[in-house]
Amino acid sequence: MPDIERKSTYQVMVGDVPVGGGAPIVVQSMTNTATSDVQATADQIEYLHKAGSEIVRITVNNKEAAEAVPYIREELEKRNCQVPIVGDFHYNGHKLIPGYPETAKALDKYRINPGNVGTRTRDENFCTIVEHAVKHEKPIRIGVNWGSIDQDLLAEKMDENNELEKPKSSKQVLLDTMVESATRSAELAEEVGQPSNRIIISCKMSHVQDMVHVYERVSEELDYPLHLGLTEAGMGMKGIVSSTSALSLLLQQGIGDTIRVSLTPEPGGDRAREVRVCQQILQSMGIRSFMPQVTACPGCGRTQSTYFMELAEDIQDYIKEMMPIWREMYPGVEEMNVAVMGCVVNGPGESRNANIGISLPGTFEEPAAPVYMDGEHHTTLRGDGIGERFKSILEDYVMNRYGKQEEKEMADS
Ligand code: SF4
Q1: Mutation probe of ligand 1 site: the residue of 300, 309, 359 with most atoms within 8 A of C-beta
Q2: Is residue 180 a contact partner of residue 157, using CB atoms and an 8 Å limit?
Q3: pLDDT digits over 335-394, tens only?
Q4: 311 CA distance to ligand 1 centroid (A)?
């Protein structure tokens, strides 16, 4: 698989997680609990972290939330949950950060939205937050969002545009303003004393093409690491497909150092879904590996049986169940590819291309399921219990391929 050449950026340390500067692209997420509820927020941070979120953001929106942050940190330490926590500030960060120094210390990064730091005293408020980031040696994310774009700057850009002989469309002016807001804010942060390697930028929009356009420009103009995300991506399939499209188009160009997928969860839905979507995007693109992948064919008229679909699902569930153990015992197993195929047309070929694969018989084919390992025919399963026997072969394969030498010898003796 050809490597994607990453855009060179500064490396920013968020807690002990490096972002940019060639570090692996970081998966992050955000809680939706009331931050003032210490237990609920610590529970969700721990849950998201266990699901694979390498940085977790929490809202710090009022004094109760600000007061809770050090206790959340303490609670996470008790649980040995070592994940950087980012404080999301809007409107009152210039008061909360100076007013709660223990909170300012407990957080690993401050997110500032330059459109939401006030109007008359916007620059002053922005600088106050940055001064405290400098004082506490914390990185900041300048998070521009088109839903809360700096209205003064937008008005200024619109006025400039009206003076032009051939004015641009108002949409184009908005896109220009997104880039300008990020650029000006980063310059201002550096003037206050924030080092270049403690600034991350995001420019979130809710339409795929707009987002791609803005990030391409920001990446061209600035060397800060970029946090990618499609804002307000929406629910279910729409949110997943839109986010995947936007992120993939940028990641393929080497743009982006940390990603978040902002899915609207269904009521009672699983918050960690956004983490798994991020991981799947990175893994599908061959950028990072988190979990063995199961390749399965979609099925067609050549097989009327649903057995291969059930087996593919069963194997997927089995891998998920085994991964907490396999991850510890078998480093590299997350790169494994398993094929579960429905008939002789593509079955043997796909199975040979996977680390391990099984090709089930289609309708009217001989009732035999050849199993392939590392491109070679290993055995052919017939009769009952094919699924269970394949799982056992898979387990042996994992141990032999990814296990430590001494474990293999113990198993052989
Ligand atoms: S492998 Fe066979 S059953 Fe599966 S989609 Fe291809 S032709 Fe159809």
Answers
A1: 300
A2: yes
A3: 999 999 998 899 999 999 999 999 999 888 888 999 999 999 999 999 889 999 999 999
A4: 15
Q: Which of 344, 346, 365 to mutate to test the pocket of ligand 1 (most atoms within 8 A of CB)?
A: 346
Q: Judge contact between 45 and 58, C-beta under 8 A.
A: yes
* Distance of CA 359 from the midpoint of ligand 1 (Å): 10
Distances (CA, A) of 411 to 31, 372, 401: 44, 22, 13
Residues 6+ apart with CB under 8 A from 237: none
Q: Phi first, then psi: give them for residue 205, nearest 5 degrees.
A: -135, 165
pTM for the complete prediction?
0.93
- How many Å apart are CA 351 and CA 335, to the nearest integer? 16
- Minimum CA distance residue for ligand 1 atom 6: 346
Going 100 to 106 to 107 to 108, the CA torsion angle's sign is: positive
Amino acid, res. 92: N
Q: How far apart are CA 54 and CA 347, in angstroms?
A: 37
| Site residues for ligand 1, CB cut-off 6 Å | 297-300, 302-303, 341-343, 345-347, 362
